[in-house]
Structures are given as structure tokens and as C-alpha cells.
Amino acid sequence: MKIEKLSKGSFIKTSIIVILFISIIGVIFINKSKAKYRVTQSIQIVNGTVNYKVPDLNVLALYKQKTEGDTSESNYESITDVPTGKYVVNTDKSYCTIIGSDTKLKNKMTYNNGEISININKKGTKCYVYLDIDPTMSGTELLATLKVNSTSEGCPNYEDAPSVTSVKSSGSLFCKGKDNDNKDTYYFRGNPTNNWVKIGNFYWRIIRFNGNGSIRLIYSGNGKAETSGTGTQIGTSAYNSLANSAQYVKYDNSTIKGVLDNWYNTNLKSTYGSKMDGEAGFCNDADAGSSYWFKPYDRIFTNKKPTFKCETPTINLYTTSGNSNGNQKLTNPIGLITVDEASFAGGLGSTINNGYYLYTNQDYWTLSPDYYSSGNGAGILSVGSSGGLAYGAVVIHPDNGVRPVINLKADTTFTGEGTSTNPYVVSVQ
Q1: pLDDT tens per residue, range 149-184
Q2: b vs e for 309-340, b when ≥16 Cβ sit within 10 Å of the residue's Cβ?
Q3: 132 within 8 A of 65, measured Cβ to Cβ
Q4: Is 317 helix (H, G, I), strand (E, B) or coil?
Q5: Alpha helix locations (H) across 33-168?
Q6: CA 368 to the chain's CA centroid
Q7: Could you give the C-alpha distances from 428 to 20, 47, 197, in angstroms and in order?
Q8: Nearest 5°: CA angle at 156, between 351 and 402?
Q9: pTM confidence score
Q10: Which residue in 101, 219, 223, 303 has the most C-beta neighbors within 10 A?
Q11: What is the C-alpha R_g of the chain?
Q12: CA 175, CA 348: separation in Å to the nearest integer?
């Protein structure tokens, strides 16, 4: 057999082909492997300053948490593929071996529904990634976890104007009603223990999930969860500075609106303003009812038929400027509870109720107009210190409490369980 000597050029060409063939076979072998390591070609390298190739980041070890909250080593299982679903990288446990030394890459790894990104600036050999079950849930996901009670279980009828003729002072109901545009709204009634929310250092109670999916909250403490006393409010104030016209029941340029705006600008706007929903709005229903009463009085005290719908919304529904509904007169998305919402929650006109979650042993304002007469001036309905729904509070009365109400966007994310000791905590991001 005659052996011919390869020319220098042919030798180089043949060598390259052999090397490429071996490399391809090697990559196929690794991809086919059933070991716990995943080849790093599946890793997205973010902001890397080195030109990477397969040997630089050889393999990736993946571990998935089995039980939420348990970060012991035994609670992780080895997996071969990046999972889809709700996971987050455990940056305390995850690391890469960089040039022979273990280096923790805190805040360098991220997970997003089946993809892992690693931000590195040195060549390495192996990365270990631990994925924890993501404990956060959106407002929409939170609503889906709550059991909706039926009328047979004690909820008012699901209709446009259900009758509410008795208080709800104990137990907890989660009921369904009708909101603006005939959309479904879901509200807490009685004395729930799972409607607590914490935003920064402030505690709130969920009143309801609005028809557009946003979440309506009422203030209930600074630094701790308050259920009664002055800690449930940000202070006291007159509703307005004058009472000699029916116009002074309106939220426009009212004294209490100034108090709420100042509090919002100081405590929520910079950090949590992007989470606020400006479309759900606040109903200041100032339509005329019978005699010198406004419609909210007629609904609650005469007919006992509260509603979540805001009549004449282009005038009475206060929304922030730039939105597609309401009167768009607000600069800040903050207001007060309506007397109708207080009735659905468990209150009744002029009836003691110290058992439901809106009872605080304090008198505090609602946003619902009461009456106007030339002899008595303008009045606003309130939640009384006995827990009953009260009328007769003239707008210039200075001693009623101020309990802010806000609406969080439906996609706001939370952790926690909703109790006073482990509330739903609003994520900052």
C-alpha cells in the first residue's frame, strides 16, 4: 500500500475538518446526555465581556425546589431542562465556578419562564442554578384563589340593586355583585381575616375587586394592623370649609381632597404611584334624590338597595386625568369609601354593628352626599362610631376621621397570606 505525504495545505484542511467533526459529535453527545447538566448553549449571556464558546461554560447544573419556602438542600431535585412556570433564581444558593474557584453571583442570574440569563465577565467552567417556587401572585391570580359565596350562603342577591336589610357582624363572606358597565365585582362582607394588605409601612383592608380587575383598599394602620381607634385613620378633617351650597358635597376642591392629596404625595406617589389604577375611580354621587336628600341617602336609608354602580359617571365618578372614563378631574388616584360599599360590607343605616371589618369605634367620612337644605347646610354620610351608617354630618364638621381609599392595578404582585400577621405584601418592583 502506497502512502502519500500530504501537502502542508491539505494537512491543515484535513485537520480542520476532523476537529469540526469531533466538535459536532461532542455537542450531539452532550445534548443527548441524560445527566443533570445542561449544555451552556442554552444559556443567554448578558453583558459578557469575553468571547464565549462551549468549553468556557461547559455545563449547567439545574435544581428545582419541591416545596415552597423550604431552602434546605434536600428540598431540591435535579432536573435536565429549564422548567416553565412560576420560579425565581435563588441567588444565595446559585453560583458559577470561575477559573477553579467557587464564586457566588448574587443578583447575576435571572429566570423568566423557561430561560435563564447569567451576567458574567470571566470565563468559567460550570454554573449551578437553584430555582425556587415563585411565591408572588398578581391581583388577578389572588382573586382566582378566593372562594365566592352564594346567596344561599348569605350573600346579597346578585343583581343590579340587591336588597341589604340586615347587618353582617360575624363570619366572612366573599360575594359577587354588579359594577359599572355591568361588570362583575367581588367584595368582602362581615369580618374577614384574609383581606389585609401591606404597602410599604401602611396596612390596608381589601374592600373589593372592581369590575376592571383593580383592587380597592381602605387604610387601616401605620406600622401595624389596626382594627379600631384613631390608628385606623390618617387624622380628622372637615369634609369641606363651607356648607351653604349643595356644591360643597362635591369632591372637587374640597378640604378633605386636599388632605388626601397631601398624604398621597408624601407617602405613596414616588414608590407606589405606578401601581395605582386611575380608571376605577371614586363615586361621589351628588344626583338629587327625594326632597332635599341625595340619592345615596335614598338608597341606604329609604330603599335599602345599595349599588356599586355610579350614576352619571361622567359627572360623579372621579378618575384621574387622561383616562377613558369618569370625569377625569383627579390629579391623584385617591378618595374615600362610598356608603354603598359600607352597606355591602355589613353596615346598615342607623344600626349598631361592632363586628364587621369596617367598624373602628370612630366616626369617619364616606364620599356619599347626604342632603342639602338652606337651614342645615350640606351634609355627607359617614360610618359611625357604633359601626352603623350615619347621616346628618354637616360638611364643616371637623372631627370625623379620614380613611384613604386607593385602587391597585390588577397586575400588582403580592406575597403573603392576607392575614393581619402575614398580609399580602405589595412588591416594590
Answers
A1: 999 999 999 987 799 999 999 999 999 999 999 999
A2: bbbebebbbbbbeebebbbbbbebbbbbbbbb
A3: yes
A4: strand
A5: 139-145
A6: 26
A7: 49, 25, 13
A8: 50
A9: 0.81
A10: 219
A11: 30
A12: 17
